[in-house]
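[[Per-residue structure]]
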Amino acid sequence: MNKAEILRYMRTSSKTDDKELLRLVDTAAELVNTTVRPKSIYRIFDCRVTKHSLIIGSMEFKSVRLAENLSGCTRVAVLGATLGTESDRLLRAYASESAMLVIIQAALAAKTEEVCDAVQRSIETENGVKTRQRYSPGYFDLDISEQKKLFSLLDITKRCGITLTESYQMIPTKSVTAFTGIDYENQIF
């Protein structure tokens, strides 16, 4: 895991020379790497992008910002990724150690991004395309309730063990769903 990313999530300079902090970051990274069990899934769909929304089949995801992000795309990848229930157990194990808890939270956030980046690389490699920036429900004007529709597009509970609460929060907590546009203008192959 990238130590600079963990420090960034902690809002600490990557140029810190605090040896004890760096030791704790290394410990947290090792704990995360040996504990979590990442899982992911993605599917690619034909889509239509309007000025105000993304349309996949009969589902409309209303968001001007998402539409801007996907402008010109005729296909979109929908992905889900999680670090698994082990990440939540790790957080509970360190709940009483506030300093270490903050560092583990940062390490888990960095690991989640690492897993999502790997999914995007897989989409690109397996399909010979470039993808655009990920965009998730709850981000800017894409309402968090859109999570329910996104879940229905993927077999995410069965494949990854991610469930959705009535308030649209994902369990395990270190889970992500996102859209990423397929950019055929910049194909790899």
Q: What stands out?
A: The two ends are 30 Å apart (CA to CA). The first strand starts at residue 39 and ends at 46. The chain has a mean pLDDT of 94.
